[in-house]
């Protein structure tokens, strides 16, 4: 079902990751994911994926513990932004406007019901390539790197949440996102739910936090152009000594071809490829997977790896 | 720039192709493109691509000459449909409602300024797979065929038009599509222009008809999941004696990986793959390619094939 | 080290598989592996992979239990054949000449030390395509099928053996094969050993049979042109209800990209792709993997599936 | 037909390229082809492809004009080397032994009938990776680079020759290579002929020099693991401003998937992928392509680019 306010948010803009080893995390994104460093400010290093039209893709911030900082969502227009801000304020989750973010105009700070920090904005600074990064084809943000995982852009976020139904109400009712797929346990609880704010089949996912903690991260995903990019990346990660958690394989849910690794700071990073799959139907009915269906594992029979249910960031002991 | 009414149209639904050899054209779509026949009615055969959620993808209609029949566009909601219908009627291009189309609810018949027939609708019949075509994964419309070109869905249409600026005004001002890229000649004329109604970088293209004819077709394109699908398809077409016109190669404009063939009826068919490229920016600025830039050929240096400027359907002598 | 008689055998020719459901096994090879039926004789159905220059690739023979029948090996010349026959006879493993095999000239029947049946030959009948299977390019055996797993040719065999060292002596000392890689347990026993008779990195493998049985089969492997063929095949097998045992993934040993399934008769079938890897060094030193290295699993961390150590054909209870 | 002495030569070892801009040529091989510099000596820079088991793959030598220096061929054994040296000396084409080549033991210098310099050898120095280049999997020569064209190994050479029949007699009668495919003109002349000394379908090609010059180079080719590597490389070359001459496309002859570029020194470099195609038949009959067949262009219809018949190195004016 299409929520009110669907399309007020245009797409995921950028994400802030916390790490205790910011330089190592930066090297992971630059050397292996094929991003480039574009800015440093305070404790943060900003890196940019080659076809992101905005100023940066990931803000890497030094912190004692890994985890996710603020997630930025771009609205479709100034009016659309106003509507969503009003809805968030009505829900009592607003934290006011800021005008100090690198690469962005005024940003409305807020939280989801689980405490994940969000930033809504419309004004943005286009990425302008330096001579070294100027592409040969002008319909592309910057030069094609052709190395490592070679990710084109940010794809989606998977938040761990203590209260998935509450977070779901917020995504649907307040932000205007539509649920495309979900897992419902035999007890009738939503174990995970996939939200789309675009023609992509998902942009934000909520997964039930097994520890009941709030505001944690399951993973951040980046899109590659081909499945072959992901196979090659697996060899690149192997050589670099990066922990390969599971994959490459294909999810049954959403049918994404995936590879999961842990960046040096401990955050789980996914490489994903959806082929030509899009969720074009305006009235797409949420698909529900049962516990039994989920137990079958991934599309080609791989069992879901145990650490998927034990590792989130920040790590809580 | 984002037009008024952007997002009122959700996506391209289906397309009707005329052919003097309907059974051969049907076999092309079924045997080589991996679609399946789902319906016959009058002079028409309906075929369905494996991940199309609607009842059919291409309607093949027997006619003396090849060419394009009606193109169906699905609206985002009943209200959105009403708004676009009102705009089309205001432009004097409406032909009234019909309720007799296979697989569709009420369809508003109309034309673009060049005479290409269009149909706007919201109500649609979901594809329901027979036992033979039921997929293993329920988030997919029908069984993965894994043969030939294995196209997932309809991707875009390229219309030849006598008056590209008029057609452009219609697309932008009446249908609410945004122009993402275009070619402007040294004389200042728009030789071709790419329109998007979705997050895809284009759904409908207008190319100047070198003969000044109206209502003709340059090509219809179908999306594959990978570039490898297109390479494999080239061998499949070679074995089947299908005319391979040009490719596989990569366009500079829109960066699409492509292969062009002529189906047995003579209509030009493209296989295309965009990788993970999407046009997520709500305020994307139209990119303009000059005549000189266009003369450089495709992305990797292949010259544009001469028959691209001499072959359209119906063929006019 | 290069054995005496290396290159006397040119390549693996064909293989006979036993199955209790020959028609279903035949359909697996034809519908999913993209072979074609070329001959029937007695209880056997002969199928041919699209770029096999010989008359057939797999002989499917109805039997009460699954397993492997005779494996055919082509010699490099009549003289080379004589040399290998003499060596086999000297080892007391010869069973004499036959001249009744479909598609082959005189065949010398023999056994390895474990009892697997072999056939050595030089004279062979080239595959001559029917009109329907005639390829467009004359340097290819038959028409490119472009469907399913689309395997090009037979790649290798993995025999289970009660006594791997004895079988190894036979391969090296009698047949002139070179060992390219092997697993040696902490107890100093060879758990598995990979033999090459060509520039491929392996053609025949011996794996220790956990039940101490003789003459059983671990798997038969077929080569695809790309890793993408294997990813697509995984979806094809999923749709067809074929048991996918493990993969797609990449072996650490030999670095093969693999997918294992069980054909309807129960025999384990591998799809494999080696990329551009060849064993060109004439003096390649056998690489030894320790038990600890083996325990790390496959190249990208997948653990070796348990059924690899419990399922062989014939199944013994 | 299998020549006498077939298998006395095991494989192509390495090749020397002349260039007026050795540092730029070096950067092409290191930055774009993913090799690494391993040695410098005199006017030469040695670079190594990631899965070459020998000390180096290409020797880049500064010279006034581009072209090919010495081509090194490894024999299968000391005895095999003696046999080929005796045959070359009998043909009057020997130039005596040298023991000063980097990475090689004693090398027998000689020429083909057209004057291309060759070096035959058996003793070789294995590539020993530095810590930085040590691979994770020990059955691989050095670390997987995962960047640019990412070529695994040298694949083949295409020599231009004034007298192709004479060079062919030398390859077949003296070096023991087998001809797998050839082009014969309507006048009965061999325009090009492909020779194999291994299980690969070709290692050395002779093409008729349109200027009747001697000792020139058409191209040197390097193998990638996948076709996707070649597609990605095309984008990498585009960004780097390298001249892309033709491709990616598929040859009809030998069915190689190809891309041709000119390195900064002007030598034509091919990226090639053969899929799983091997020439396993010991008695493969040479396939002959007529002038008319050749005129059809490449496998998928691309016409052979004009500069294929006008550009060789050294460039002669």
TrEMBL record, chains A, B, C, D:
Keywords: Dioxygenase, Oxidoreductase. Residues 11-123, 153-274 form the VOC domain. It comes from the Bacteria. GO terms for molecular function: dioxygenase activity. The keyword Ribonucleoprotein does not apply. The keyword Oxidoreductase applies. This is Catechol 2,3-dioxygenase. It comes from Actinocorallia herbida.
